Amino acid sequence: MDTIRVGDLTVHRLGFGAMRVLGEDVWGEPKDRAGAIRLFHRALELGVNFFDTAESYGPQTDETLIAEALHPYPKGFVVATKGGLVRPKPSRWDSDARPEKLRRDLEGSLRRLKLERIDLYQLHAPDPKVPFADSVGALAEFRRQGKIRHVGLSNVSVRQLEQAQKIVPIVSVQNRYNIGERTSEDVLKACEAKGIAFLPWYPLGAGSALKKSRITKMAKAKGATPAQVAIAWLLAKSPVMLPIPGTSSVAHLEENMGALSLRLGAEDMKLL
Predict the structure, then answer these.
(1) pTM exceeds 0.90
(2) Is 57 annotated as catalytic?
(3) Per-residue pLDDT tens over the stretch 130-142
(4) Which one from 57, 73, 177, 202 is the annotated catalytic residue?
(5) What is d(CA 88, CA 27) in angstroms, rounded to the nearest whole number?
(6) Where are the domains of the chain?
(7) Which fold has domain 3-203?
């Protein structure tokens, strides 16, 4: 499996977004807890060594489940998490990136993940009520204290990325991006120029992109599935791309991993 650098970490090119195992709206416990744990183990068996989660998934449930399933973590395994949101009810994802809230989020994540240091800690979203520099500055302080190894950002603009880089080294950006949603193209290009890993969330576009005729035709021609084409497109699109497709199904996980053996040429990319 191809690898990619995230700071000084080397991980396999296709990661896993762990949020999908939870209840509806990423709220509460999984319907099948034992099945979720089996899914995590299967991901490891297939070579995945980068899991993405967040304090707000559950909330707090996803991190606990990862530790229950995988701790003590195998050598080379990276768990990335995020802080800075609050979930008053299932339908709400509210920003709260005050330094004191980020500290509480981080301490809780360390405890739930059973770690002394988190390899990649990401600001989940800029908070319009808090100066961006204050939120990023808090993460810089956590890094100085040795509680996090690397700092990442999520849902940011190029300007915010550049502002954050003046405060602390940034090794990753996680923005919404997929074959049918490319509004973060400028952020992706900035990450390429700076050697920063780009983690596209919603890499399959919640399934909507997979119904486009150019994708279904390509899948048929390649003997692949639309999901495999969409993931292979991401991998071919940029050397800094680290997709993190999520699922609650072992069958879908295995299908997604099949994208690694699908190679798209220049003509394929032009058609897509």
Answers:
(1) yes
(2) yes
(3) 999 999 999 999 9
(4) 57
(5) 11
(6) 3-203
(7) TIM Barrel (3.20.20)
